[in-house]
Amino acid sequence: MSLVAQLYAARWILTYALLALYTANKLWKYNRLRAFRGPFSTGWSELWHTSVLLSKQSHIYYKEINDTYGPIARIGPNDLITSSPELITHMNSVRSLYTRSYWFNAATRVEPGKDHIFSELNEEKHAKRRQQMAAGYSGKENIALESDIDARVQELLDLIRNKYLSSVSASYPVDLARKIQFFTLDVISTIGFGQAIGDLKADADQNDYIASGEIGLTIVKISSALGLTSYLQFPPIARLLGPSEKDKAGFGRMMATARNLIETRLTKSVEGRSDMLASFTRHNLTKDELLSEAILQILAGSDTTATAIRSAMLYLITHPRVYNRLQREIDATVSAENVQGIIQNSVLQKLPYLQAVVREVLRMHPPVTDVVPKLAPPGGDTVSIAGKQYYLPGGTNVSYNAWGMHHDKEMFGLDADIFRPERWLLEDTEAYREQLDAMRRTTEMIFGYGKYQCLGKPIAWLEITKVLFEFLRHFDWALATPEKPWRSTNYVGIFVQDEMWVLVTDRKPRV
């Protein structure tokens, strides 16, 4: 009897055997995490999590899950999500045995096989890359950092004053979301490559960076949600479907523009230069590594900071009490410090209400809500959260619920869903200091923690505080379309926002 005939004769036995193996595998996966509650389907299928990742508001769904099922909840057969700062601190600490998870971080690679600091899964290589890049981000080898940012802030102010000022005789609505993106792109290209892309001066999306970034983020979202990363990054498929510098849009277009910036910059000596690229080159990053990091800088460095500034302006405009108090602090500072040009960071750090406003904005609307899952160590791990013990089986993906953590009522008060900067200016008593310290430690995680902390945090904070100070110093603001303040879409943790139409009028400081 031929093999085919034998297989045909045993077809029902084979069918039942395969069905039994499939069922046993599903039961094994279900039982591994049966101690954690979640939507019923998440114990058996990725369908719920896939639909959330493909949605435009994944951060809201994640918050609802932890609100409903507790600080650690199940969102897939091998996936948990947590809103616990204790667990996030534990997983991200320098000596932690937790590692990055392939399904999420690898999906952010621009080119297959070429990692940047966020997609790198090897812990030793990741630590080395951080060491190579730290000096460039810190300003130690980028001494013109603040003056470069000041120049872009001035260009932003000039653009608004010259083209978009409204008055009692005429209104000129401006999409502030788009202008802020021009600003953050020009900042990151200036401090990164020594020259601005030029969006502010052109008042346009030069090289279609913004449009290309949205296309690229869409591909990342689909790849991670459907589990296609390993297939799309398989070399034969990647050559056919992956980004190419010949592309007219998407990551390929961004790669071509970034390569041109890098090659132009590398024709100049790095000696005596103080931009990030010079620092990275001095610390032995190759040209391919520079390209990968450049794409990440442009996306992560511009989109997240832009989201923070947009959110700050939206919350300020819609909360007149906060707006007016901050503007009074700014006017008093201009008078007391005799501020002439762009405000300096040394002064900004002494403004308690401005610092409180920024921290509250970042808490209310974290600029990045990517879940950045970590893999539990092979032998598993037992953790304690609020006095309760949890066992996390080895190889389990444990994700970060940013929106849930930073709207937690036990941590931030019963009004945690309300914008109130005064919560950061608590009375000076020991009890309040302890609570304030806990709140601060929690919000520090917005920029990552421990070995995964964002290197660009000081730069982002500098951009945000400078822009808010100068915006309220020179102009008055109102929403042009209060019934629809903006359009905001979440691409697996990165927000794309536009149509934030505002009216801007000139003002003189009132002391």
From TrEMBL:
Pfam families to which the protein is assigned, alphabetical: p450
TM stretches of this protein: 6-24
Cofactor: heme
Heme listed as a keyword: yes
Keywords noted in UniProt: Heme, Iron, Membrane, Metal-binding, Monooxygenase, Oxidoreductase, Transmembrane, Transmembrane helix, Virulence
SUPFAM superfamilies from the UniProt entry: Cytochrome P450
Keyword Oxidoreductase: yes
UniProt xrefs under PANTHER family: CYTOCHROME P450, PISATIN DEMETHYLASE
Protein name, as recorded: Cytochrome P450 monooxygenase ABA1
